[in-house]
Amino acid sequence: MNRYLALHKIIELGNFTKAASAMNCTQSAISQMISSLEDELKIKLLNRSKSGISLTKEGEKLYPHIQRLVYEYRTVKEHAQEIRGLETGTIRIGTMGSISTHWLPILISEFKKKYPAIEFVLLEGDYVSITEWIKTGAVDFGFVNPDAVSGIKTSPVKDGRMLAVLPPGHPLAKCDVVSLKDLGREHFILLEEGNHSEPLIAFKEQGIHPKISYVIHDDYTIMNMVEAGLGVSMLAELMLKRIAYNLELRPTDPPVIRKMAIGYKDRLSLTIAARRFIELLKENMDKLP
């Protein structure tokens, strides 16, 4: 199994030296493991050049299966740890910026009071990438909009508003509530969220065709652009808490709601540690912003 773990670590970190350090072995040992694996499979897996390490065409075809094998092995080890108790283990969560910033620090801090040795790995993405991570086992569970996903189980947690985000002194800032019709006339900066966008769905339901000027993957970049007067946007209210940007924030008419749920492959695939963390989340929803 170590040979598959070594290949996975090389691809993850990009070179043999970092992989060897992460696995606490020599670079020579890592090279021997890859050579042995290639000999057994009778396939060259890696291209080695001055520019770095990359998978061969054959390696690219085989690597998704190797990823699943590594994730399954990791799950077996974590379930074995559970049998011995929750003294150690890792919880892997697929998340997005607003959740990482405003929910997870509170929840992880509370969880570690009871389980101090449990470690966390947070992978930030959009609805599409988080769903894929759940399906492949890269994460134990993730935060998703239940309307945006398929092929996984979901459990609702907490819905939140989305707010119109305007530059300082913008004419629409004179309104207590901004209509989607007025917002759609402005140069709109859209947050890229995969195949599901709450603002675009809201515009479509009202028969509005917004003037999309930019599509950006990062909330903070959008805030910077709006502050600079490059357009308007709509972001989750949760993301807009405690920001240092000079922006005007207004609710919309009609309101735009972002549904939020926990997504997971199935309950049996969740480690005990992951289930305990989800239970903590549900118990503390009213305390979260």
TrEMBL record:
Q: Which residues form the HTH lysR-type domain?
A: 1-56
* InterPro entries, per the entry: HTH-type_LysR_regulators, LysR_HTH_N, LysR_subst-bd, WH-like_DNA-bd_sf, WH_DNA-bd_sf
Which domain of life does the protein's organism represent?
A: Bacteria
Q: Which GO terms describe its molecular function?
A: DNA binding; DNA-binding transcription factor activity
Q: Does the keyword Aminoacyl-tRNA synthetase apply?
A: no
Which keywords does the record carry?
A: DNA-binding, Transcription, Transcription regulation
Annotated Gene Ontology cellular components are: cytosol
Name the Pfam families for this protein: HTH_1 (PF00126), LysR_substrate (PF03466)
Which family is it part of?
Belongs to the LysR transcriptional regulatory family.
Write the protein's name.
DNA-binding transcriptional regulator, LysR family
Q: Which organism is it from?
A: Succinivibrio dextrinosolvens DSM 3072
